[in-house]
Amino acid sequence: MFVNMLDMASTPLTLTPVSSRSPATPPSAAACCAPLVEGALTQDQAETLAPLLKALADPVRLRLMSMLASRDDEVCVCDLNDAFDLSQPTISHHLKVLHQAGLIDRDKRGVWVYYRARLDALSSLASVIAGPVSPTRAVP
Hints:
Elements: H1 5-9, H2 43-56, H3 59-69, E1 75-76, H4 77-81, H5 88-100, E2 104-109, E3 112-117, H6 119-130
Antiparallel strand pairs: 1-3, 2-3
Helix pairs in contact: 3-5
């Protein structure tokens, strides 16, 4: 679309104030929304949370975590292998990453290793991500 600038020059320009803030008030202080930093993660919380999320950021590890978290008892690594089209060493590597992140516990019995989700770690992870739920916060 072509706009003729000469036609626009003959139209008077009217400015209307957006808000009634004082000249000393910076534009960010007159924002229409609550500040983003209120209730956000601290630097320490973010640094603690990042390795947990990184461990869960792989689809195989996310599925393994889901499988373990859905069980009340521990699960043998031999039972987890059947759910994936991956080698046993690959599954063991993914379980090791989850264990090092503190998301699962393991117990070696002979040649087999049994795994259990650390529900306390998952619960604290969920509460940090969700933050406090207020009655005015919209839930989709």
